[in-house]
Amino acid sequence: MSSKRPPDLSHLAAPGAELRLRATPGASRDAIVEEAGQLRVHVTAPPADGKANAAILKMLAKALGVPKSRLSLVRGASGRDKVVRVD
């Protein structure tokens, strides 16, 4: 993971919130970008065996300031467009 800190997304960490995002697995570096109200998450992990999804949840947890155990992937386990719920 890059040494650059992820953006502060703690304002999105309300319990029950659903975050829609676009994933880019196999990227050249890990990054979370917020553009036009849409989250784009770039991870270096490959899109195989759930590695990219695990990396996305780990990065989101850090950016949201919540433990990984409070995040669940609701939709998009095998696609690029995902919905993650904060429990």
UniProtKB/TrEMBL annotation:
Protein name per the record: UPF0235 protein SAMN04490244_102365
Pfam family, any one: DUF167
Record-stated family: Belongs to the UPF0235 family.
Signal sequence bounds: none
HAMAP family referenced in this protein's UniProt entry, alphabetically: UPF0235
Listed NCBIfam families: DUF167 family protein
GO CC list: cytoplasm
Xref: InterPro entries: DUF167 (IPR003746), YggU-like_sf (IPR036591)
PANTHER family: UPF0235 PROTEIN C15ORF40
Organism this protein belongs to: Tranquillimonas rosea
